[in-house]
Amino acid sequence: MVLPAYHSAVTNIPRIGMTTYREKAAWGVWHEPADLLPATYADAVAAAGGLALLLPAAGVGELPNAAAVALDGLHGLVLTGGADVDPARYRAIRDPHTDSIRSDRDEWELALTAVALDRGLPVLAICRGIQLLNVALGGDVAQHLPDVVGHERHRPTVGRHGRHDVRLAAESRIGALLGPTATVATYHHQAVDRLGAGLVATGWATDGTVEAVELDSAPWVVGVQWHPEVHDGARLFAGFIGACARQPAAP
Using one digit for the tens of pLDDT, what is the confidence trace for 19-33? Predict the structure, then answer.
């Protein structure tokens, strides 16, 4: 029969949940709040052989076990970029440079992260995502990186990704994928500070900023401070989707 064959082919494609922004957006004659994500994320997942599924936060606080239900049937999770994590989540006073807080998104992504880690799902955490992952594991965030490193090279131009080099640990997952160094797309003013439980730093900018982390106790959990969906991220996404393909989805 055609239908079972089609179903079998589809289920061989890793299904990847990706967190979203909620922003005012315009299309056609409409100007409305929208749950959205830059297309570069889905494009990167698709190019690596995965199927991207968006996981918006709207209304999930009213649903019991929403994060567990959302990840049922998925093979991996991407924690995407976006607004700063609320400093209250890591017991800090808000710095004047910290952006507007998205409490619903923080709560949803922390819940998704907890379920994903508990199930052993592969996780790729990008920019805000690496910070969210670190906070989920009890770490904290440097709220305004220029005050720490004394320059603006991590976010050199408003609305444009910059470039800088990172050094990667040779024995790490990401080092095995990318080699000892990489030139990355950068756009952030915050960064991981004190590492959460079990996280190991595996990448650094020349100024010492932590640019990559891994959770050694998990099958495949990698966080990067840069944007691999924007520039030269094919090998990283291929490694992530490869790990997802080996991961049986929850029923």
Answer: 999 889 999 999 999
